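ok so i was messing around last nite and threw this chain in just to see what happens. nothing serious, just curious
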Amino acid sequence: MAAERTVDAFTAAALRESRAPAAGVLLAIDPGTDESGWALIDIATRRPISFGKTENNEFRRILQNDEQFRRLRVVAIEMIAAYGMAVGQEVFETCVWIGRFMEVLNAVEPGRAIQRIKRKPVVTYHCRSPKAKDGNVARALVERFAPGAKNYGKGTKAAPGWFYGFKKDVWQAYALAVFTADMIDWEGAQSA
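result:
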């Protein structure tokens, strides 16, 4: 998977490549039972800096041990919500991973801003409908950041687009990151 950057490099890449200081970088996590999608973005531009889908134990280890990760101040993690339907074992296992990630993030940097955000507000924000599906969210992101671009704004290896290398859970992590960054800007404007 050449297009996907490795998790070991994601914090180093963020600190080297981002025009914003570490406080201006946001990590969003779309947790899963075995693997989690993640996206690191520049809050000011919303540009993806680094992203991927990584096995949970490895991702937790990186969150726990990467010294450069301490400089990141804002983390958003998708939270499970009850919508009145029965759920299976996968949902409960995902809840366990949310707790594990939060435990590590709090231990690494006490007082870090960790936002637990449910999926429906993110979907509704991007698509104006709580019933939108993953494909609708991806299309809304393309329309916002790569309007008119072919191939979902991915481009090619020779000419990478805004979303080059994105797939499945990365789209959802990126949607969460953009939503969180937009809310930070909105709240800041409201309090000014």
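not much to say yet. The chain is about 45% helix and 20% strand.
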